[in-house]
Design a protein that fits this description.
Helices cover about 25% and strands about 35% of the residues. It is of the alpha+beta class. The chain binds adenosine-5'-triphosphate (ATP) and magnesium ion (MG). It is an enzyme of class 7 (translocase).
Length: about 350
């Protein structure tokens, strides 16, 4: 392996505060791994440990087979894009892009060609002579990416690269990043975001962080369909998280008996049932629940209903209804047994 990333029980502390707690995670060569988690969960810290801007208190960081834990940043072969681009305002685009190459002491004759390649790849070739202040936010973003790519890194670290862009520009850049990755299939990418859509769209796998710890890791589909705990269920996609008591092959939810796969969760305990709102149907069906409509939201393509079932709010996202129910109306909602996941209580890490 020449370009994967491996965290081997990496911990980082500031003073007494542990902000990254024994992270074990491998990004395979050519893989896009999203680090997803709320503010302060340790995402940027993990990235900085790979880049060499923070020294772990314990554990090792590997890039490929190389232990880089104590290597200075410029010797790690890494391209990095931070949240605010950090372009040099007094340098033209081409000089910004050449900066990393010069720092690396690349051969002088090679630099113009490499700069041109990187600008070409990010669609910025015709802007080489401009200054950052003469560019839009999205264009500055491309230059920052070109600068990271110019050194032909084995590892690309992206820290919330799209967070300063508006929603429309963001979805365009997301498609661009996906294209870039197809053009550079050997580059391993660690992509920090707190936006689940970015993570679901771009990543081969998602590592979910909370409170300095890795909570879950898997493909987007795995995490979405089979979350391991309530944190993942609510952070990756929308979820109904309903308190239930577990029986054998079924659970009771308020007064209703509901069929689900109880898996390894023991009968007699309290647990949480996770059902995605878009998998809840309106009207009779399997696992029917009756309740009162407390809110109806029209969202264009869909209606979101909130239904109170024995004191539990159940959210249902339905294709736009011709005649939506009224507030206070009694309705039946249902879901297929295979669309529900039972989460044992108290499993929040591991
Ligand atoms: N240089 C520092 N000195 C002290 N504490 C720090 C330092 N850098 C980060 N921290 C703390 O470490 C914790 C994790 O920070 P980090 O930047 O990794 O979070 P994050 O997940 O990237 O959050 P965000 O989504 O807001 O960027 C936070 O509690 C933060 O206050
Ligand atoms: Mg951060």
């Amino acid at each position: 392996m020449s370009g994967g990333i491996r965290f081997d029980s990496v911990s980082v502390a500031y003073g007494k505060q542990v902000v990254l707690d024994s992270l074990d995670l491998t990004v395979e060569q050519g893989e896009v791994m999203a680090l997803l988690g709320p503010s302060g969960s340790g995402k940027t810290t993990a990235l900085r440990a790979v880049a060499g801007f923070v020294r772990p208190a314990s554990g090792r960081v590997f890039i490929g087979d190389r232990d880089v834990t104590v290597l200075p940043p410029h010797r790690r072969g890494i391209g990095m894009v931070v949240q605010q681009y950090a372009l040099f305002p007094h340098m033209r685009v081409e000089d910004n892009v050449a900066f990393g190459l010069k720092a690396q002491k690349a051969a002088r004759v090679e630099i113009p060609g490499r700069v041109a390649d990187a600008l070409e790849m990010t669609g910025m070739a015709s802007y080489a002579k401009r200054y950052p202040r003469e560019l839009s936010g999205g264009q500055q973003q491309r230059v920052a990416i070109a600068r990271a790519l110019a050194i032909r890194p084995g590892v690309l670290l992206l820290d919330e690269p799209l967070s300063a862009l508006d929603a429309q520009l963001r979805s365009g850049m997301l498609a661009e990043l996906a294209r870039l990755h197809r053009e550079l299939p050997d580059v391993s990418i660690l992509y920090v975001t707190h936006d689940q859509v970015e993570a679901l769209t771009l990543a081969d796998r998602i590592a979910v962080m909370d409170k300095a710890r890795l909570q879950d890791c898997g493909t987007p589909q795995e995490l979405y369909r089979r979350p391991r705990n309530e944190f993942t269920a609510s952070f990756v996609g929308n979820a109904n998280l309903l308190p239930v008591s577990v029986g054998v092959g079924s659970v009771s939810l308020g007064g209703a008996e509901v069929k689900v796969d109880t898996g390894e969760v023991a009968a007699g305990v309290s647990a949480t049932l996770c059902v995605r709102p878009h998998l809840v149907g309106l009207g009779p069906g399997p696992n029917a629940l009756t309740g009162t409509v407390t809110e109806v939201q029209w969202r264009g393509a869909t209606h979101r209903l909130y239904v109170d079932v024995d004191g539990q709010p159940v959210k249902a996202d339905l294709r736009e209804l011709r005649t939506p129910p009224s507030l206070g109306e009694e309705v039946t909602v249902h879901f297929a047994p295979e669309d529900a996941v039972l989460l044992a209580a108290g499993v929040t890490d591991g």
